[in-house]
Amino acid sequence: MDSEDRFSIASPERCRSRGVLRDAGGVVTAVIAAVLVAAMAAGVAVAQPVDPLARFHRQRVDWHPCEDPALVAEHADCAGIAVPLDYSRPDGPDITIAISRIRARDTAHRRGVLLTNSGGPGTPGLDAFDLVGDVLRPDVLSRYDLIGFDPRGVARSGRHQRCGWPVATPIRSAGVGLPAFVTETALQGQLAAQCLVGDRDWMRQLSTRNTARDMDVIRAALHEDRLSYYGLSYGTYLGAVYAQMFPGRSDRMVLDSAIDPRRYWLGLQQDWGPAVETAFDDWAGWVAARDGQYHLGASAGEVRRGVEALIDRAALSPIVVEGFGFDDHLLPTVPWTMLRDARLNAALAASMRALADAAAGRAPQVPPELHKLIEDDEHDENSVMVQIWCADAPMPADPAWYWNAIQAARPTQPIFAALANNIQPCAFWPPPAEPPTVVDNAVPALILQATGDNRTPYPGAVALHHQMSGSRLITLTDTRIHMVLRPGLSTCILDTTNRYFRDGAFPTGDRTCRPTTLLE
């Protein structure tokens, strides 16, 4: 069990659990007790356990009014929590983690603190109410101090956040052929170099293990014995790592749309391929049934062939929409982005129609969702996300490894193999400061998962359920969506989660839920 033992002296209870104090007749225990009594009688000082993080655990938290309008509206307080930059050097430099708090209103039934993480990695999280305020019922929220926080390296808890990239994100397709892959490899190397010209030591400390340690410092600084937690997507990995590292300090945990820790990050990326191809076929059937509206094909096969042809066309010359060029590296990211949620079927169909019209020289009607993707690609930069990936887990350094993986997957993943197996900046990154966390515990947790999730595919939730043997898997069937704790989606999911957070009502076994509202 990874319980951060290297930061504390083992207690007799810990030693006993490891078989160190094997004491059939109490003889060893009696001898130790006699020695301690004699030492104290003689005036000899007995060493007490030393907490290297004491100054962080016992720090004073100075609350002040928040500045964000949404937090002001919720009467939230904000503060900064000092944590070590490098936990192996607790006397070294500090950094500050920005947190917020909405106080529990039902003080008579107050349970404690509820921390949240909305995924990413790299997503700001100071506004926790925005994540759970519409899914946890008022009588549940009123029992917790709701704690939001920006993880280390993110937003108000960050520095060196942007690397000056020429593209928004490294999540791109490697392209149609080998020349495109070579070009993409050079670009991904450039992205890494533009980050690494900064403070490498800082970036190597942006790991999930350190963020989990930061969570435990927050817990201690708030004078709480344990913390409850809701994590979404990447937040499920963070929650699983916390439960592994601090197994006695987790209270009620809910992990929504889960990642298999053994496949984070490269394996998860590869798992996108088959899952998103399946989602594409589902969408293609939906579009074919509406060919009179979208004119993308009268059968699922025809729709697929049309999109594949559009990608081949983009490889010859970018398809320009609103002045932005979609080449074979970017065009596959349009369906990849929107297939995560069946409610975006129409938006994706309208987007593909616009791209097809632009490719044919016709003026496209650009839907808001495609316009938003263009704006994000022109102005955003997800380098913080990559800095966290690369601090967590190594990736193969040989470009040939990725090319071979792409080629092996293309026959069954004609659209997404080159995206799901593409080389990433982490191939050019220094190795992580620590190995990834092996999750193997019996900490209770609710794992919520949709069978049609293609961003964190369902087998990952099954795997995490096995690794956290005390968990319960709550499955939402027949639904293509990422994030299942949503208003109106499934009464079964909402009731199960709210009862758990409110009363600790933990299901006696796994549970299958159906959507209350079918997604189309």
Considering the chains and any ligands shown, give keywords for the structure.
12% strand, 21 helices, 12 strands, alpha/beta, 10-stranded mixed β-sheet, 520 residues
Give an overview in words.
The chain has 21 helices and 12 strands. It has a domain at 5-41. Residues 5-37 have low confidence and may be disordered. α9 packs across α10 (234-245). The chain has a 10-stranded mixed sheet with strand order 1-2-3-5-4-6-7-10-11-12, with helices on both faces. The chain has 520 residues and is α/β, with parallel strands linked by helices. The chain is globular.
Number of strands: 12
- Radius of gyration equals 25 Å
Weakly predicted, low-confidence segments: 5-37
Distance between the termini: 44 Å
Query: Which structural class should the secondary elements be placed in?
Result: alpha/beta
What share of residues are in beta strands? 5-15%
Helix content: 40-55%
Mean pLDDT: 92
Can you count the helices?
A: 21
The profile of the biggest β sheet is: 10 strands, mixed
Quaternary organisation of the protein chains: single chain
Apparent shape: globular
Which strand order does the major sheet show?
A: 1-2-3-5-4-6-7-10-11-12
Summarize the structure.
Mean pLDDT is 92; it is low at 5-37. Strands 1-2-3-5-4-6-7-10-11-12 form a ten-stranded mixed β-sheet, sandwiched between helices.
List the helices and strands and how they pair.
Layout lengths: L11 H6 L9 H15 L12 H4 L6 E2 L3 H5 L3 E8 L9 E9 L9 E6 L10 H5 L5 H4 L2 E6 L28 H19 L3 H5 L3 H14 L5 E6 L1 H12 L4 E7 L9 H23 L2 H4 L5 H17 L2 E3 L2 E3 L6 H6 L6 H15 L8 H12 L3 H10 L6 H11 L7 H4 L25 E5 L7 H10 L4 E5 L14 H13 L7 E3 L7
Parallel strand pairs: 4-5, 4-6, 6-7, 7-10, 10-11, 11-12
Antiparallel strand pairs: 1-2, 2-3, 3-5, 8-9
Helix pairs in contact: 9-10, 11-13, 13-15
